[in-house]
What does this fold into?
Amino acid sequence: VSMGARGALLVTEEIMEYISAPIVAQKSMIGAGDSMVAGMVLAHKAGKNFVEMVRYGVACGSAATLKPGAQLCHKKDVDQLLESMEIC
It folds into this structure.
């Protein structure tokens, strides 16, 4: 479940994890949700587990807000944000 700037909640029969979004200087929210979904799909295709899949999605969505307008996220931003993210 996407929670916007607050991150995401992952719930399955076996898992319940809150993935906090990193605090960033947002320039635009346009495309952040789409970037989150795209990041999750990419992580899933790479064989990541559900928690890592959602973490990557949250990082991609957050990275997309760093750019003005409807720009795509950049991998270097995603990688930096992933390093700062915690699983609660």
Observations:
- The two ends are 15 Å apart (CA to CA).
- Residues 50-64 form the longest helix (15 residues).
- The chain has a mean pLDDT of 93.
